[in-house]
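Final report, closing paragraph on structural work. Over the funding period we assembled a curated collection of sequence-structure pairs, and we close with a single example.
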Amino acid sequence: MILIDGKLTSQIIKEEIANSVATIKKKNGKIPHLAAIIVGEDPASKIYVNHKVKACAQVGFNSTLIELPIDITEEQLLDELEILNKDTDIDGFIVQLPLPDHIDEQKVIMAVNPKKDIDGFHPVNIGKMTLELPGILPATPYGILELLERYKIEPSGKHVVVVGRSHIVGRPISILLSQKRETGNATVTLAHSRTKNLKEITLQADILVAAIGKANFITADMVKNDVIIIDVGTNSIPDTSRKSGHRLVGDVDFERVSKKASYITPVPGGVGPMTIAMLLKNTLTAAQKKEA
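Its predicted structure, as stored:
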């Protein structure tokens, strides 16, 4: 079994980005600038956004963190987005999800300038991805593609089963892996919570992408020998042996499934760090396109 180390791979990508930033700075002095908006005091969201800000510093980006109160109105938030859309110094920005219930997430996503949408969630970017046109890819699926490429895992001709149909991970990665691309050309089955005979389908998978959001959902009896596992899940479960009282696990029962897998991503340290790395890569791409 080979462990697919997303933490190490993300560090390599950050070093590549830092080298590009140094070249850009030497050429014209314009440093890529990433902004992040967070609404409210959700601890997990704050930790994730702080990781993104820290990552910006590691690669030499400028960064701006905009913290807004949880009772901000939808109209006020949209006004903040418009300021970022018009700011020529900002190359890309994210709005940390989830948002409070009184704010329409889809309306917020639609209000982001597609050229600055480094999450890759805007319908313009999703449409370009679907049509295999140049655009900004959703960060987590982009990270999965990078892991497969850098570990020389060839999806072509293989049966990929994606468990989970979210707009953020499941649907995009199912589309990307089926496309005529270097890390693609797979036969893809998209399964989800309503899929009947799920075990029969997952047992056919040469590559299984688990993105259903349920701790240890994929068990050893659901996969065949030498399967390649990409575990996107991040679930907190109780653990009295930890100071925090909990620990993170994926959607895959790592301890047992890893004994059958040829490759597998761990949680934490697998896909998660790659998401942040690809947000940085998307920001760099946006900055380069603006200067071209």
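The mean pLDDT is 94. DSSP finds ten helices and eleven strands in the chain. We thank the funder for supporting this effort.
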